[in-house]
Amino acid sequence: MMKGFVAGALGGLIGTWAMNDAQRAWTRAAGDQPPESAAGKHDARDWQERHEHQNSNELAAQVAARYLIGRHLTRDELRIAAPLVHYSFGAVVGAIYGAYVERRQGGSGAWLGTALWLAADEIAMPVLGLSEPTTRRPLEMHAQSLAAHLVYGTTTEAVRRSVQTQLEQPLLSAA
To answer: Following DSSP, what letter does each residue of 135-158 receive, concatenated?
Structure first.
């Protein structure tokens, strides 16, 4: 289970990076200017910023800062904290997924991406006050978010599978 956990965490990190790039590509393809968030392209919330003018990674980082250090973060601090929140979340989800599929002997990146989109963006973010209710979002926002999460899931699964295979190979002995 530990190999799956490690492989999934690495997959989740790379999946988060791919998700960020997919968000930015969609924004540019739609003819929009990328938003000017503190973390730039590293926080993958283009769709939210374009419509809601806020970023749930920045909001979550602010909540954590108020709890941990008792104050709001500056914009410079958010440049680090917002992507740290996003990449940490992606790595943790990937690690849990990796441990789960290692026990089940197989996984699906599309399943992971869809489940994460539904659980996080469609349910948890609005409930936690980190985004507007899903009923206020235009269809394009749902589609962009789902597409980005599918990129995350399929990339996470591909990397997890590759890393898992490498971790399961016996070490070559020096003779």
So the answer is: GGS-HHHHHHHHHHHHHHHHHHHH
CB atoms inside a 10 Å sphere around CB 157: 25
Q: How many domains does the chain have?
A: 1
Q: What is the pLDDT of residues 1-21, one digit of tens each?
A: 889 999 999 999 999 999 988
Residue 174 lies in a domain: no
Distance CA 95, CA 102 (A): 11
In a domain, 43, yes or no: yes
10 φ, ψ (degrees, to nearest 5): -65, -45
Is residue 175 assigned to a domain?
no
Is residue 109 situated within a structural domain?
yes
Q: Which domain holds residue 129?
A: 2-168
Encode pLDDT of 92-116 as tens digits: 999 999 999 988 878 899 999 999 9
**What are the start-end ranges of the H helices in the chain?**
2-29, 46-52, 56-69, 75-104, 109-116, 125-127, 139-168
Q: What single-letter amino acid sits at 119?
A: A
